Amino acid sequence: KMSVPDYMQCAEDHQTLLVVIQPVGIVPEESFFRIYKRISAVSQVNVRDSQRVLYIRYRHHYPPENNEWGDFQTHRKVVGLITITECSSAKEWPQTFEKFHLQKEMYGSTLYDSRLFVFGLQGEIAEQPRTDVAFYPSYDECETVEKRIEDFIESLFIVLESKRLDRATDKSGDKIPLLCVPFEKKDFVGLDTDSRHYKKRCQGRMRKHVGDLCLQAGMLQDSLVHYHMAVELLRSVNDFLWLGAALEGLCSASVIYHYPCGTGGKVGSRRAQGGSLSAEAGNRHRPGKDGISVLFCALTSNGINADTSAEIGRAKNCLSPEDIIEKYKEAISYYGKYKNAGVIELEACVKAVRVLAIQKRSMEASEFLQNAVYINLRQLSEEEKIQRYSILSELYERIGFHRKSAFFKRIAAMQCAAPSIPEPGWRACYKLLLETLPGYSLSLDPQDFSKGTHRGWAAVQMRLLHELVYASRRMGNPALCVRHLSFLLQTMLDFLSDQEKKDVTQSLESYTAKCPGTMEVITLPDGLKLPPVPFTKLPIVKSVKLLNLPTSLRPHKMKSLLGQNVSTKSPFIYSPIIAHSRGEERNKKI
User: Fold this and answer.
1) What is the Cα–Cα distance from 202 to 216, expressed in whole angstroms?
2) DSSP three-state, residue 54
3) Residue 77 φ then ψ, to 5°
4) pTM, rounded to two decimals
């Protein structure tokens, strides 16, 4: 049973060859990932003397049980292994090379080819020309790494192409083997292998398998033809699991045709950004000393370049964008019949969501995601739960369901501090909680709350702020606690009950005793700034009572100045009273 889902899967991954890169012996992590990054940059290579492009998917960890599903979907099969090791002396070399062979055995049944990169070994051993081993004096002196990888990918292509040609040829008289997934093998013991039903099942599964190989070999149109034929054969014998896989293959090939820039976001943009890279890679190919160029010529004369893509009607075999989704639904319904295919079903849902996100069909995408939430896998570890909820959150964000995205990200945050974890990750929890704020219409700037009506659900926002306070406390940062509690009191005052006001103020009193509140901006490690929180709503004025002023400050009533010689009595140069008395005098004269 496949138990580890790849939540980053997208439809275009079906055309990739899977290569695992692993350390052998003790290799510093920083050095390993430095070389891993350089190797994984060679993600697509133009096949010489052909219009075809090979796409490579690199992983530094891949569960062997997932590899057993390689016949079911060939992009799950580890076909290449690259190992990185350090070796400082000739004495260590035999043991190092033995470890390399042991590593190969882990994926031995599916590997097309493998390479060992040795760093640090110099001398006679390092000078011997070898195909499967590359020697470099140090991690800084390894300019030919990329060229070695291109040659390695060419060798993978030769094996892939020979397998495709061998299985695509109709050998009448030869029995077609029945391809199986691991849990099926026991079910087929004792079956009548001469029955028409059995033969059709074998033919349908092999057709689907050849479709996978064509897709990986860069023959998109041929793969569509094989998938269509496989669907007809498998549907006629009710072979539902493999029918689902054939339909998904059809969807993947059609997605690759319709969306050449990919569906996986940044990851999926490899085809768009890789045009110049692949051309450059093609130009860098030179005939190798190990006979690769000779093999290429031999295979070409046997029809490798007889790509029939132009002859096959594109419109006839490629699914329309609407049909892609219908076929995904059908495939997922077939996977749902088998409890051991939970990972396949989950990944198909994720792939369909990525396609629907590009098609801007959010409501349908949410239905696929809802289905993915309820797919029951084995007991997941806490780390796997965090990954699952984080990816669900990311996918909901992609389709514009911001509050649903925040909901799953908050669950992922809580999972970081689950009681079952020996060392809870409070920093990771706090960081994820901060990322949920926009989804709940919550800003940490008090000024945003003085602009009219309150936005969002206050009850949820208060809960989130309490969780930020708790995570801050567990991180050992009382200044953050004070800031978040002050913010809670200032912005949510209208929604707090009397008891809640009392609890919050008591907590604030307790924290400020250890760390007084300030009016300084708090800058978090990731650059986020928390503005100060002035208490403009506190204290709350409940009643107003006028009090007598002290005697010295009380006002005294002045006598009327009318009828007096105001010019001498008044301290003012000009006043309404003066103007009035002068006006009266003028009237008398008149």
Assistant:
1) 21
2) strand
3) -90, 130
4) 0.78
